[in-house]
Amino acid sequence: MNVIESLEWRYAVKKFDADKSLTENQITTLKKAFNLTATSYGLQPLKLVVIKNKDIQKELVAHSWNQPQVLEASHLLVICIQKTYDKEEVTKYFNLVQKIRNTPDAIINPFKKFLTQEIEKKTQEELLAWNKNQAYLALGNLLTVCASLQIDACPMEGFIPEKYDEVLELDKHNLTSTLVLPVGYRANDDYMKDLKKVRKNLEEVVLEIN
User: Fold this and answer.
1) Which single residue of 2, 19, 167, 168 has CA 20 to 30 Å from 63?
2) How many Cβ atoms sit within 10 Å of the Cβ of residue 82?
3) What's the alpha-carbon Rg for the chain, to the nearest Å?
């Protein structure tokens, strides 16, 4: 399928086939796609938690508005952001830039100074909101990659982050859960499987300025 056909094929799965599992290669591809997601300034203030543990998935159903996809899915992906964020993350980023690109200090330092100042200006609440936006970028990227690989998925905001954080012990890693993405294969009896996709006409969602 081409990319448009893949996106037409995609929908938010309401029932997964609990007997089917994704391969390690498929999960590796999703991990790499997550890592290649565009983020503001390339800072990647995100982490992906990959869960393939039915006991944990079952426990998380109660904290996901009882949505059964959390348990039925082959894997449960949880996109997280850092609970606290500071200029040290900028330093780590530029250290990585220099390691990979061997960029001279004379070129890198002005941008590093600018970005450090921008981070220091913001409150932790502002930084959390900013980084949460990056999580949505990652979610969109993963959904497109899933569609292209014919991996089914169901993006979720309907869950209790505090409970996820507790169950997954995310506080130990300075993380908080932001978005949830069960992935796997649609069940043959999912009532949504054969319904036509509902979208506005292109003319209603696109404004062209020539």
Assistant:
1) 19
2) 17
3) 19
